């Protein structure tokens, strides 16, 4: 394992150039360039009709490109932010976002946290949510996505396995009402044999 690719309670290893390069290599491998592998995940995101979304931990922008044009990405890795901007997305580093015009209360219809929670400890994911929840309107959605077994094992920076119960616990601690949990793109048992199967949890912020 590369020294910079290891679990860290605060997710610091995912902010490095090494992690950016690894993810870029994985997402641009030849067979992923030939096959529309992201199409089912983008379709699933679009059908949720999230509205203007703040994509927290936007990475390379692969899901951000499927969201409405006025959606915004934020990531603590500046290399990811540069890449997301390069493909036409609105994206900020964490510090840049908090000083931007988009850091306005109630500005977004939804928060998306895709492949974030498994990288950090409980205190850190709660801090992340509490930082960005003020920018979500009352009644807005919070959608969380985490990998199932094989996907979890595939990344050396993963810290905690986050299943439906763990995601529900995050929602409960942060006063979010869980509306739905589901396995995607295949049934739950496929997560042991299919690397890209995911846990999804859809929750909602109270009306205040």
Automatic annotation (TrEMBL):
Entry-linked InterPro entries: Methyltransf_12, SAM-dependent_MTases_sf
Molecular-function annotations in GO: methyltransferase activity
Keyword terms: Methyltransferase, Transferase
Matching CDD domains: AdoMet_MTases (cd02440)
Biological process per Gene Ontology, one example term: methylation
Domain Methyltransferase type: 54-141
Name of the featured protein: SAM-dependent methyltransferase
Organism of provenance: Luteimonas terrae
């Amino acid at each position: 394992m590369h020294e910079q690719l290891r679990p860290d309670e605060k997710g610091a290893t995912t902010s490095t150039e090494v992690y950016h390069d690894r993810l870029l290599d994985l997402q641009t491998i030849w067979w992923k360039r030939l096959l529309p592998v992201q199409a089912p995940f983008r379709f699933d995101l679009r059908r949720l009709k999230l509205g203007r979304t703040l994509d927290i931990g936007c990475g390379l922008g692969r899901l951000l490109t499927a969201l409405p044009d006025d959606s915004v990405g934020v990531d603590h890795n500046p290399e990811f932010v540069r890449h997301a901007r390069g493909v036409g997305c609105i994206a900020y580093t964490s510090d840049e976002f908090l000083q931007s015009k988009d850091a306005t209360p109630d500005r977004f219809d939804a928060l998306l946290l895709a492949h974030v929670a498994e990288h950090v400890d409980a205190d850190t994911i709660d801090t992340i949510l509490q930082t960005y929840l003020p920018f979500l309107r009352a009644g807005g959605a919070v959608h969380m996505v985490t990998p199932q077994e094989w996907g979890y094992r595939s990344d050396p920076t993963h810290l905690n396995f986050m299943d439906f119960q763990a995601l529900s616990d995050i929602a409960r601690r942060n006063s979010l009402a869980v509306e739905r949990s589901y396995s995607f793109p295949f049934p739950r048992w496929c997560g042991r044999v299919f690397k890209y199967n995911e846990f999804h949890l859809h929750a909602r912020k109270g009306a205040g």
